[in-house]
Amino acid sequence: MKKILFITSSRIGDAVISCGILERLRLDNPQARFTIACGAVAEGVFTRFPALDRLIVFEKRPYSSHWLWLWRQVVGQMWDLVVDVRSSGVSLFLAARRRKIIKGGRRPGRRYRQLGAALGFDPAPLPVAWTAPADDAKAAALLGEGPVIALAPTANWDGKIWPPERFVAVFNALAAQMPGARAAIFGGPGVDEARRAAPVLAALPGAIDLVGKLSLPEAAACLRRSKIFIGNDSGLMHLAAAAGTPTLGLFGRSKASEYAPAGPRTAIAVAPGPEGEAPMAGLQVADVLQAAQNLLCA
């Protein structure tokens, strides 16, 4: 049986993006078992991976000592393949028949394509999201029947966040064209995520509040049942696209040329101005609404 070590990101979005090549490796090596090493925040991205043998979760430590810790976890094994998305160099000091250290850091171009090209996959595989029957059952119970419009009004910093009242305006406009539509508000755990989502929840009292209440596989299952996802550039945006949900990503202070959502049905709405430096307030409701309508009709 083949043993494959996959070292990936500590951030949810980057971890999700790496799932495309991980799934392709699984399909190309049906008898292989995988050990996956990732950061704690991204753990849930991989818990439902079908060929998972071991999930190693690590946190950043002073003087980069977390890499030494990780090496100690995996050194006692002959690996058939080691793929290091983090460019950590750990694999250089492991017994491995094959190894691929993928260049890290920010550079121009779509990240999922860079990962695919590094492993010789053409075209680059799109990210995927794995769920279990229990996740799907919970999503069905939470969302019920009828169309659901998923909104993700949070992000990891305020500069990437579209004004909350505009999320409300877009939902109301779409709901007027979609009988029975309800909003589901997504966000991560913690007080900052709750604070950022609060204005949208307050303005939409009938919304399904999912902020900080779901594991990542449960969130993926809920997103998969949604009619459309509209959200800031965030890990949830990438998860929605990977789950196959029609996904509209909103960009201003981050670069859509690098981190636009990658999935079977995706679109972007970008604030006017220099890429990665445009204030989100410049992105108008009419532009987001038109992009959402186009995506729904695609």
Automatic annotation (TrEMBL):
Q: Which residue windows are coiled coil?
A: none
Recorded hits in InterPro entries, A to Z, give:
Glyco_trans_9, LPS_LOS_Heptosyltrfase
Which keywords accompany this UniProt record?
A: Glycosyltransferase, Transferase
Kindly indicate whether the keyword Methyltransferase belongs to this entry: no
Q: Name one GO cellular component term.
A: cytosol
A Gene Ontology annotation in the biological process aspect, one of them, is: lipopolysaccharide core region biosynthetic process
The highest taxon in the source lineage is Bacteria
Please give one Gene Ontology molecular function term for this protein: ADP-heptose-lipopolysaccharide heptosyltransferase activity
- Keyword set includes Glycosyltransferase: yes
This protein's name: ADP-heptose:LPS heptosyltransferase
Originating organism: Acidocella aromatica
